[in-house]
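Hi R.,

As promised on Friday, here is the backbone we talked about, encoded as structure tokens. Could you run it through your design pipeline when you get a chance and send me back a sequence?
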């Protein structure tokens, strides 16, 4: 099997939700969504209101071919509550970028946006992958590290990155979101390890 054939075997028909929170690394998420769609996944995109200030929902709608949820009050194609319908449908949730703010909300069960609401409503066996992205000092902050430990140990979420390098704040350090290929590989490995649950 070629690389593209093996990748298609991993992703074909897999129901993936990509959730986007408000950080400059949003531009990388467009490439991530494009990659997963081309690999054959069934994909939906969620965005926080903050994320829409960095990249438009239309960009992700064009790439995914599906409406993009940006509000807890929207309802597109589920008879039950939209966040419940998306959570039940989802085989894998990827949050990229996962900002300090969204990680804090997830760790503390704060459900004031569509991303956290869907994450909270996921069945317990649904894997979640976070791709953290923030300023190096924010990443090193003791509260952020506590929140990361909480989502990993209590919620059993998985993480990829962050990487070290040049940041939008014109400093160098840990906090760069992993590149789309690395996120795809981490998600694929997660799927191979845990399998998916068809709903």
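Update: got your reply. Pasting your designed sequence below so it's all in one thread:
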């Amino acid at each position: 099997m070629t690389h593209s054939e093996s990748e298609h075997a991993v992703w074909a028909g897999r129901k993936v939700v990509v959730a986007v929170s408000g950080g400059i690394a949003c531009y990388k998420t467009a490439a991530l969504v494009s990659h997963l769609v081309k690999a054959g996944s069934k994909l939906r995109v969620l965005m926080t209101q903050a994320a829409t200030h960095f990249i438009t929902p239309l960009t992700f709608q064009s790439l995914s071919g599906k409406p993009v949820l940006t509000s807890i009050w929207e309802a597109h194609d589920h008879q039950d509550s939209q966040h419940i319908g998306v959570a039940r449908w989802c085989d894998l949730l990827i949050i990229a970028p996962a900002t300090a703010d969204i990680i804090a909300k997830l760790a503390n069960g704060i459900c004031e946006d569509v991303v956290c609401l869907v994450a909270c409503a996921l069945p317990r066996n649904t894997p979640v992958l976070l791709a953290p992205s923030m300023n190096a000092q924010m990443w090193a902050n003791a509260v952020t590290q506590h929140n990361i430990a909480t989502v990993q140990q209590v919620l059993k979420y998985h993480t990829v990155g962050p990487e070290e390098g040049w940041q939008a704040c014109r400093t160098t350090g840990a906090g760069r979101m992993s590149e789309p290929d690395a996120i795809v590989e981490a998600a694929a490995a997660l799927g191979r390890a845990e399998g998916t649950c068809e709903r």
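One thing I noticed while checking it: Residues 9 and 40 are 8 Å apart (CA to CA).

Thanks again,
M.
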